[in-house]
Amino acid sequence: MHILVTGGAGFIGSNFIRYILTAHRDWLITNLDKLTYAGNLENLADVEGRPGYTFVLGDIADRAQVGELLGKQHFDAIINFAAESHVDRSILDASPFIDTNVCGTQVLLEAARAGGVSRFIQVSTDEVYGSLGPGDPPFTEESPLAPNSPYAASKAAADLLVRAYHRTYGLPAIITRCSNNYGPYQFPEKLIPLMITNALENKPLPVYGDGLNIRDWIHVEDHCRAIELVLLNGRPGEVYNIGAGCELTNLDVVRAILRALGRPESLITYVPDRPGHDRRYAIDASKIRNTLGWVPRYKLQEHLPELACWYQEHSAWWQRIKAGEYRRYYDVQYGQRAKASPQQEKGSDSA
Ligand code: NAD
Ligand code: TYD
Hints:
Elements: E1 2-6, H1 11-23, E2 28-33, E3 53-57, H2 63-72, E4 77-80, H3 87-92, H4 95-115, E5 119-125, H5 150-169, E6 173-178, E7 180-182, H6 191-200, E8 205-208, E9 214-219, H7 220-233, E10 239-242, E11 247-249, H8 250-261, E12 268-271, H9 286-292, H10 300-313, H11 315-322, H12 328-334, E13 344-347
Parallel strand pairs: 1-2, 1-4, 2-3, 4-5, 5-6, 6-10, 7-9, 8-12
Antiparallel strand pairs: 3-13, 9-11
Helix pairs in contact: 1-7, 2-4, 4-5, 6-8, 8-10
The protein binds nicotinamide-adenine-dinucleotide and thymidine-5'-diphosphate.
């Protein structure tokens, strides 16, 4: 199996690549990543040079480059993680979200069609369903799309394109919609790594609004195993919700982090709410549990002390990010980014 993973230098993509290269030692993975602010090859430092792994610097929205890559070699599957992924950034400027999440997905779909891939997996989000009230049942795959942020709207648009490419052209595409992830190598702008790293630095922990918004948390490895199952046994044209049934308010999460690190609650600082802030997400994952036998292994409350330790032990990793210096890794490994050819490859040549 030769898989094209896009966005593999980000949080979930890098965890997925590490997981797959360990679980399936004979699989080949090509990682196409633009290395935006969120793409960090340090996330994959232990994977680099492994047989079967190839990195390609590139943009999923670059039609010529994607066409050339898929024209040059056949991929059995494409798994599209590449995205602008942070809601707050989408509120400041939605344009890159449209370019990558919408146009980039369409470019990939077109290339997948021309390249005759056997599976196209669109890694989507529960945020496409919008927000739930306190007593509402969790989102099912049949819940209407009602995105509220520019990020969620761009992901919903991409989902509709994926659906259309399946219906119209018979592309064997599958959409997964997962809830909020936590785990190692998450960019410290997202709630959990931001709060852990701020607590470690004895900085204020900025809680939006009243802190009572609810998210449904899943460990990234459980998400990766779900995608693996969908890749192997999922049905084309289907949507699979992924969630571990772990609803917590933001305050619950922040307090648990402070407890795990032995830091005072006085670090909590209430800040103005996010515009259009979704109140509650909750996923009904019975479809993937019942049809593919997926079962999550982690519970956030039990795992938080271990996760906090991971960030404590990897302080050099996040400190370089917070200082904005992590990009140097690329320059050292691959030469100056600015001078890089449009398609610069590194790793074993698996063509
Ligand atoms: P991330 O922001 O950590 O990583 C995104 C990666 O995509 C980065 O490596 C970045 O360089 C790359 N990228 C961005 N634009 C690109 C482009 N035009 N071409 C090629 N690469 C590009 O994101 P993440 O948290 O790992 O999320 C991965 C995917 O999972 C996204 O599609 C996101 O919508 C989805 N998702 C995330 C969560 C979550 O909790 N993080 C939950 C559900 C779904
Ligand atoms: P985030 O990690 O940005 O994920 P998403 O908005 O995609 O669910 O935020 C998770 C929750 O935490 C969300 O309700 C917003 C809140 N939040 C804060 O209270 N403070 C922060 O500094 C951040 C980044 C998020």
